[in-house]
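INPUT
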Amino acid sequence: MKLSKRGEYGLRAMIDLANWTTESAVVPIKDIATQEKIPVKFLEQILLMLKNAGLLQSKMGVGGGYYLAKPPEEITLGHIIRVLDGPLAPVRCVSQMAYEPCGCPDEETCGLRLVMLDVRNAIADILDTTTLADVIARTHQAQNNKTL
Amino acid sequence: MKLSKRGEYGLRAMIDLANWTTESAVVPIKDIATQEKIPVKFLEQILLMLKNAGLLQSKMGVGGGYYLAKPPEEITLGHIIRVLDGPLAPVRCVSQMAYEPCGCPDEETCGLRLVMLDVRNAIADILDTTTLADVIARTHQAQNNKTL
DNA sequence: TAGAATGTCTATATGACAAGTAGACTTTTA
DNA sequence: TAAAAGTCTACTTGTCATATAGACATTCTA
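OUTPUT
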């Protein structure tokens, strides 16, 4: 039930980019890697995957870098995780994006499957409705609460 | 975010055992393996882990086998999964049973962490309140709905 | 127009872990 | 005492996570 490093790094990088986006800047990989303490070459691959998935855009050459393809309000954590880590579902037979039969005699009446479907939905309900903007808002909110 | 085969097999085996428990029987590994189509030697290890965790008891020798250490109403899916697959939390910095710092500058105000905490809680709320008895009940319920 | 700064792409290394297999050993019963 | 069961440890095999390396393409600027 664990998020991979790739997934975690990708999320952190996207949040980082969302913070820069307010100034509509283009951010080089190196800067993100330094900021988030991620191996540069690993981050390269991650950002490339996110670009190929249409979540990022990039500019080559001097002064180039990455930037969000859409405003932070329109990018969900669920989307990012699915690109980097695959389906959210704990078992394939309840996955929306990558269904596979699990071999139990009757999926329709399998109690375990029904519970796992609840789990999948609980996860997806959170991750598919939480955007990068929401994450940033929660961070600021927590910071304010702390200083009170 | 995926359950391992070990976890899935273990859950299915426990549910199987819970079904036999009504007759307070002792079930040999081979029978469970056949029923659930699980490799016998693999299932051996799984049941042993569950026994060492106190969820199963066993009887050696002819006529021996496994049986639940507690009634099905008292065994949660969360407990089984933790034994076989480790923590439920998607990242360790929100794990109750296996916390580890994640290296972000301030965990208390990390928005990503707060979201992941929600996810962990959503998963745990389901898995730690759903028992083997609940799974069996849902199966029966689904079967009844089907024949209506 | 050269060269430095950037992203792009593919290949490779390494270690951990999942999933499964093997076999010797112990206990119990008939 | 032999057969049927669980116990324990080691091993195999393949896949995947987590990187690392290096050649290449593009863009800017001096």
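end of record. The mean pLDDT of chain B is 95.
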